[in-house]
Amino acid sequence: MAAFTRLTYHQRVHNNLLSSLTGPAAARPRTFATTRIRMSLQESAPSLAVVGVTGAVGQEFLSVLSDRDFPYCSIKMLASKRSAGKHITFQGRDYVVEELTPDAFQGVDIALFSAGGSISKEFGPIAVGKGSIVVDNSSAFRMDENVPLVIPEVNPEAMSGIKVGKGKGALIANPNCSTIICLMAATPLHQHAKVVRMVVSTYQAASGAGAAAMEELVLQTREVLEGKPPTCNIFNQQYAFNLFSHNAPVLSNGYNEEEMKLVNETRKIWNNNDVKVTATCIRVPVMRAHAESVNLQFEKPLDEERAKDILKNAPGVVVIDDRAANRFPTPLEVSNKDDVAVGRIRRDVSQDGDTGLDIFVCGDQIRKGAALNAVQIAEMLL
């Protein structure tokens, strides 16, 4: 079957920016080009709804669904009232975006949510009450002890027993993007030697703050190069040619919410409240894909060569670790890719023996950090 053809998000953002400078684009329908109409529509397949379909992750949901030939008998495109009425062409068919209302989930088997925490809190339980299985990309339910927090390659057992066709709704939470990217690499090593302490420093792209932030980074870059003051609508300081502490609210303990997500979500996913986790999250002027420096302390010895072998065989992970050529993972080479890349695999010389490792991880925040992980969860429901 022909591969799904689509613009990269970089290209879509660039085109949207050009459109905003040359004329109105509101009337133009969003189009997912295909070389051939794919045969995902199946009468016996589940019915889908994509909530927040006009956002960056919502659009990526559609890309991933098409890339993976996810089977469905029908699909609803749902968004806010201001987006209702827009047209989206998906797999050769035209869809009109519907306003998100409580009645929208009637007959929906799987609902993929990416419209923000407040929307999820309001409409997630409504969808579940109507029999839908909700896969939620927000932070609304992640730390609810009754809601599974799932990375399919890491803890699929957490959603055991939840399946389409049982006539019962359920909530499943997608972890935070930085947590997913980190644990895709750390978990295979943890399963072998047990991590007792993890120190994470993140370098997070504009994509984590949505399409508007990506567009502002492009605009600011142009403005700064032209000697103009940068437009600062999304962040309260210059982003182009700069970096700063993650913009999440800072808590009373001095950590921001993004950093505490890494702490708390890791413990829940690993089902281990004793593991020590600390994080520093930084926003960097990269368009798409997060990078993370991860320091691991193990209960049992694990040398770097064995660690490299473990990572080479881990699902969803690719090793890029060429010391001679100084070639290691970069955000650019994982953008629009499914796999998380790992490199800089080396013994922590500050620890005795082989009980510590440093690794460097890069992953596409919109794809594996959000949409792909959610669709993989949906695949496990079939």
From TrEMBL:
Residue intervals passing through the bilayer: none
Enzyme class: oxidoreductase
Reaction equations catalysed: L-aspartate 4-semialdehyde + phosphate + NADP(+) = 4-phospho-L-aspartate + NADPH + H(+)
Active site: residue positions: 177 (acyl-thioester intermediate), 290 (proton acceptor)
Single Gene Ontology BP annotation: threonine biosynthetic process
Name of a matching Pfam family: Semialdhyde_dh
Family classification: Belongs to the aspartate-semialdehyde dehydrogenase family.
Protein name: aspartate-semialdehyde dehydrogenase
Annotated organism of origin: Trapa incisa
